[in-house]
Structures are given as structure tokens and as C-alpha cells.
Amino acid sequence: MAGAISRRKVAEYTAERLLAGDKDILTQLAAYLVQTRKVRTLELVVRDIEAALAERGVLVADVRSAHDLTASIKRELTAFLADTTGAKTVQLRESIDPTLIGGVQVETPSATLDTTIKHKLQQLKAAKQ
After folding, report:
1. Contact yes or no for 78/40 (Cβ under 8 A)
2. pLDDT tens-digit readout, 6-53
3. 68 phi, psi to nearest 5 deg
4. Strands 58-65 and 104-107
5. Rounded Cα gap, residues 68 and 57, in angstroms
6. Is the pLDDT score of 96 beyond 90?
């Protein structure tokens, strides 16, 4: 009886296949998670895949902002992330969150940068107490 495949091994294999241009790997991954009854680990697997991609020079960054980002800001943010992390390629996954008021919050597999007005107001409130 074969042992279970670790989540990290699954993530590394998936990252390699994605970089090789395998368009079917995500369907295969979904089937594997269903077959092995590990669907609940999907979010963790995705994080592990993103970490494996980052190790290979492809950074996936979640960017939250109160408004749509302009093309100029996207270029500057992409360049900043590439310079800071050494990534060859940066993919931004954008989402709008009106509660942030302004600024951006950027999450990568290894760090978070929060320049939102909401965050700054929370820091001021905490400092005042």
C-alpha cells in the first residue's frame, strides 16, 4: 500500500506542470483532491503552490484596494514586487474592498504590505490607547 503524498509534493509537482504549460494540471489536481477526500485542504494546497511558484521566480500577489488600480499603479506595484522579491514574473490577483477607504494591501506567500488608510487609522487608534 502506497503512502499518502504530502501536500508540499503535490504543490511542487503542480507548480512545475503549470510552468511547463500543462493546462490540464488543475483539473487533475481537483480530481486528486476529490478522490483522496482532501478537498478541505484546497486553500492550503493553493498557498503551497503559490509558494512553490515563488521559489521558481513566479510571484502571485493578492492585491486589495478600495478602488480599481490604474495601469500605472499596477506597473509600479509589479516592478516594486519584482525588485523586492527577485521574481522574474509577477502576477497580481486584484480584488476591491470598499472598507479599506484608500491605499492597497498586498499579500505574497512570504509577506504582507498594508498601506491602506483603514490600517493607518487602526494604528493611530492603537497608539492613542
Report:
1. no
2. 999 999 999 999 999 999 999 999 999 999 999 999 999 999 999 999
3. -60, 140
4. antiparallel
5. 26
6. yes
DSSP string, 48-108: HHHHHHHHTTEEEEEEEESSPPPHHHHHHHHHHHHHHH--SEEEEEEEE-GGG-SSEEEE-
Judge whether 23 and 29 are in contact, CB under 8 Å.
Answer: no
| Selection from 68, 38, 62, 40 nearest residue 110 by Cα | 62
Rounded-to-integer distance, Cα 42 and Cα 8, Å:
12
Q: What is the pLDDT of residues 56-90, one digit of tens each?
A: 999 999 999 999 999 999 999 999 999 999 999 99
CB-count exposure of residue 68 (10 Å: 0-12, 13-18, 19+): exposed
Question: Measured on CA atoms in the order 119, 76, 44, 42, is the torsion positive or negative?
Answer: positive
**Helix, coil or strand: residue 18:** helix
